[in-house]
Amino acid sequence: TNTQDMRSWQQRVQDAFNDPRQNVDIEISAYASPDGGLTLNERLAAQREKNTTQYLEGELKRRKIDTDVNARYTAQDWEGFRQLLEASDLQDKELVLRVLSMYPDPETREREIKNISFVYSDLASTILPQLRRSRITANIEIIGKSDEEIMEFWRTNPKKLSVEELLYASTLTDNDADKEKIYQYVTVNFPQDYRGWNNMATAYYQRGEYNNAKQALDRAALVSPNA
Q1: Alpha carbon distance 137, 133 (integer Å)
Q2: CATH number (domain holding residue 213)
Q3: Which residue range forms the structural domain that includes residue 195?
Q4: Domain count within the chain
Q5: 79: which residues sit within 8 A by CB, 6+ positions away?
């Protein structure tokens, strides 16, 4: 449901706010459908933005989340109208799309579309209601670990590292034995990632262990045929 989705979204924002390695800010975009004239839709979209902002700021305050909220509104969402229309199976939608391309002026567009009365009734019940909405977006930036932190985790607690971080750690050392330990760890803990097997194959090959190299390559191919 929408309520469950909103709770999940709020929890994700909460998690990002509480994580020192993540930055989060929020955008609110409020819209009105293009019917009804610019003056009316300006008022409707502005009020929708205000209501959404007040609701969200209340929820953030309740959760003790202090982050930027940037809000804006679009009074006549012609672009959204076009996108929904193109994706619909509405009869005679090409006729309406032709009107959009022929008349850039919003008032003329609306008048010409309403003149196609048999189409407009369908638009009024299917497309237009979907355009009267607010969209809330959380922008989350994940801050990666430093090279020093990655190597420290590798030495003390490698389970804290992702497979990407482990493979990156192998590039931070010039010691072949240390590289191979990382590759072996990856093959054990991330056996479905072909890169660990490929890297092990390279290590075996460089030591002249050609049978082991072939076995590692075969395992990589089994995991990912395109490896």
Answers
A1: 13
A2: 1.25.40.10
A3: 147-223
A4: 2
A5: none
